[in-house]
Amino acid sequence: MRKKQFKAESKKLLDMMINSIYTHKEIFLRELISNASDATDKLYFKSLTNTDISASRDELKIRIDIDKENRTLTISDRGVGMTEKELESNLGTIAKSDSLNFKKENEGDENIENIEVIGQFGVGFYSSFMVADKVEVVSKALGEEGAFKWLSEGVDGYTVEPCEKEERGTAVTLYIKESNENEDYDKYLEQGTIQSLVKKYSDYIRYPIVMEMTSQVPDPEKEGEYITEINDEILNSQVPLWRKNKNEITEEEYNNFYKQKFYDYTDPMTVIHSKTEGQATFDALMFIPQNAPMDFYSKDYEKGLQLYSNGVLIMDKCSDLLPDYFSFVKGLVDSADLTLNISREVLQHDRQLKIIAKAIDKKLKSELTKLLKNDREKYEKFFSTFGVQLKWGVYSDYGMNKDGLKDLLLFKSSNGGYVTLKEYRDRMADSQNDIYYACGDSEEKIALLPQCETVKEKGLEVLYFTDDVDEFAVQMLMEYDGKHFVNVQKEEFDLSTDAEKEATKKKNEDSKELLEKMKSFLTGEVTDVKFTNKLGSHAVSLAAEGYLSMEMAKVFSQMPGAGDNMKANLVLEINSAHPIAEKLASSDDEKLEKYTKILYSQARLIAGLPIDNPTEFSDTICELM
Ligand code: ADP
Ligand code: MG
User: Fold this and answer.
1) Mean pLDDT for the chain?
2) Which of 8, 57, 299, 545 gives a 20 to 30 Å CA spacing to 286?
3) Which of 31, 87, 98, 150 should be mutated for ligand 1, with most atoms under 8 A from CB?
């Protein structure tokens, strides 16, 4: 018998495919099961349209058999099978998919809607050569008397010859490679491996996948002893939870599914189950966990949703489906629109995938918006766990995502508890021009800031920014509903009346000499020393002048490689109405220098900044005492 050559640039292609298209060798099983499922689907479809063809329950099954001795793994189905010609054309031509043709030919038939043929690339079958050095396909086609055997040892071609086979359908037998130091192939002959691979990739194939399972069960006659039992077992659960109708699924089912699949001990906070049709058709089942996953803050954490195509897993963590600010979301997407089987690189450029990702982003935002509206307590708990993520979302990508996210943000405020920007805006007095905020390590510390106190005394609300990202996020937002965000710790910030401003200005002009002197004692530390009326009953405070606020400078200075140009321009502000003002004016130069340095250190402490020389600070105070 003459060996036939693969068609197309087959040799090269086969080699390339075997070695590079698939990231994991183990997916060969998924491919062969998908093909068996397709063949069974086709038979089922034909039985619906042609009464001469029957498809009994027993025929609508896929079998897996392991023969350890001969090192073979066989996947068989009782589907449509392949004729001699089909064996040649389907398995002899790489990248030819008869399954795709089948779908196209039957387009418009009402029954085809219920058929979920998976194949469309014509490469899946060849993945068997990743684990086998010889592959044998024995097939008897629907309506044919004889059967044929296709045999190949990979790149050097294949043979087709007649053979015996009783039942209609196809049996694909892989002669599993010998293990070597780099690769363990023996595991594909273990029932446990096969069982878990079926669970992992093919759990939702709609036909039962059956395998003979050997298990140890307690001996009914002798207590404490075990006997070996061999039974056919169905390995897959067949119906994907997400394909069921929402109203058929209990909360418990959702919760168990989540906990099992995503390794969590606690029920999810929110379940989002949606069917989308339109530009892209897909089912999504997503969960927002109650707590951050264990490794969430580690470098190893990978965001992403599982990606299925017609119930077959294609990728475990498809990161392109989730924006970074939703990286805590767990779940999966199942779409028939996706071109299967191809490597991650290709998938990344898939237009369909981008459409799905966009729809998911929208869905998550609208679900969170709903939650915020309907269950404030739950939302606040969610926000305290994952809110920082959303704020980073506003900040990153140059604020590209700000519009969808800004109304999901919560901030602590001087009114107590969390507020949304909208709530703040709605409460603003007509005369209030800006949205006020102050930064610090904790709400308590911010509340005690001198500048904060005066704003509150005027009956105005102040947002308390305690996360590093807060101020950066609002800088990106620039404004909310026409109102700008204003840091009360900025030098420019001033709520006083024109008359008060005039008086302060005069005071500063009159004290020019004094202030210049004080400034000279703080060279390199502050850009200015000023009298102010913003401090209520407090003596001193620091304010930042120009673009960088103190908080932003603090964040920047913690970044690796931060230079000196990331320093805030500090202004030492002194309360003109405080007795200390008099004291300064009447001090001699030696005293003035000491007082100035003490005031500056105090102001730094109030602002939550470190002081360079705490010992000197303490010594000077003691000396004066
Ligand atoms: P695809 O599944 O993407 O079409 P494959 O390389 O997996 O590509 O398979 C190529 C073709 O071989 C299929 O389209 C199908 O026509 C045929 N085929 C493969 N396995 C079987 C099977 N078990 N029964 C019948 N036909 C099969
Ligand atoms: Mg296939």
Assistant:
1) 88
2) 299
3) 98
Q: Which residues contact 442 (CB under 8 A, 6 or more apart)?
A: 466
- The CB of 141 under 6 Å from ligand 1? The reply is no
What is the Å distance from ligand 2's center to 305 Cα? 23
CA of 340 to the centre of ligand 2 (A): 9
Ligand 1, atom nearest to 31 Cα: 7
Tens digits of residue pLDDT in 71-117 = 999 999 999 999 999 999 888 766 566 776 776 777 777 666 666 66
Atom of ligand 1 nearest to the CA of 172: 23
Give the global pTM: 0.73
* Edge-to-edge strand ranges of the sheet holding 483-487: 418-419, 411-413, 462-465, 434-439, 483-487, 479-480
Q: Is 438 left (phi over 0), alpha (psi -120 to 50) or beta?
A: beta
DSSP letter (8 states) at residue 295: T
Convert the pLDDT of each residue in 548-595 to its tens digit: 888 888 888 777 766 666 788 899 999 998 999 898 988 899 999 999
DSSP state of 189: G
Its sign, for the CA torsion 56, 57, 58, 64, is: positive
Q: Where are the beta strands (DSSP E) in 153-297?
A: 158-163, 169-176, 209-218, 226-234, 270-276, 282-288
DSSP-derived letter for residue 139 is: E
